[in-house]
Amino acid sequence: MVESARSQNHHGIATIGSALPFRRISASRSEPSAAASVENTAILVLHPRLQACRKAVVDGLLNTTPSVIPVLTKEYAGSDDDTIALVQRKMSWGERVRRGRDRAIAAQAELQIEGQRIIAGLERSHEAEVARRQSALNALAQWAQTQQVIAAMNRPVITNCTQLGNFTNCTTR
Fold first, then answer.
1. What is the spatial distance between Cα 64 and Cα 67, in angstroms, rounded to a whole number?
2. What is d(CA 39, CA 31) in angstroms, rounded to the nearest whole number?
3. Is residue 10 in a domain?
4. Which residues contact 115 (CB under 8 A, 6 or more apart)?
5. Which of 63, 68, 79, 83 is nearest to 118 (CA)?
6. Residue 162 lies in a domain
7. pLDDT digits (tens, 9 = 90+) for 133-157
8. Stretch (H or E) spanning 165
9. pTM of the predicted model, to two decimals?
10. Would you say residue 167 lies in a domain?
11. Torsion over CA of 47, 76, 90 and 43, rounded to 10 degrees?
12. Alpha-carbon gap, residue 138 to 135, rounded angstroms
């Protein structure tokens, strides 16, 4: 069955799309039927591709925002558990869709909280960086002022005096 799905379309997408009951489910979240054999086959063909996409997402976030990975992996594990139950006919399509929707809403809320935490951390980091730069600028200004005082103290004093009759005029530089 899997081979015939692949032979109809290079990626097997046409057969998978027609096998899954998306139109039925979108019309009714209470779809009572379990996955049919052709649907199970389509799920098993599609699932490795889904796993590859999930891995790419996790790998992409690993260096930028690793704190969101636990939220996603929890969602992925729940989805996989439900997919297994659907394929084993222990869960209906309607229940699978409802649980997926509920998990997505919960994951989105967790990701928003984590996003706010990340933004707050970035703001604190930015404020600390601005404070460090201001401190360095103040230290540089103080150093420059000290150098001017030292230079003034070490400058040779030259006094030129000129006398004209009883009158003496001195200039110090």
1. 9
2. 14
3. yes
4. 68
5. 68
6. no
7. 999 999 999 999 999 888 877 777 7
8. none
9. 0.60
10. no
11. -10
12. 5
